[in-house]
Amino acid sequence: MTAGFVAFVLLLSLLVPLVLYVLISDETSTSEVVDRETAEHEAMSLGGRENRSHTEESENDRAGSISNSSERDETDSWGYSRLEDE
What pLDDT digit, counting tens, does each position of 29-40 carry? Predict the structure, then answer.
């Protein structure tokens, strides 16, 4: 009984990685290489990011970081006040 269980576990430990390897290799073997324009078009048609220019994004990002700079100086990434340590 124990030998059967050990054989089953060994078989399973070899079979699972093999099945995963086959599934992953099937998924990656049929990759389609497209140019950037086509990839962006397909991403947008599948519900990608809204169409904003890079300048809009960078201006909004900069504005948000400037307004939060004093708050960032007073607390760390966990929200703990740095002023309490001093």
Answer: 777 788 999 988
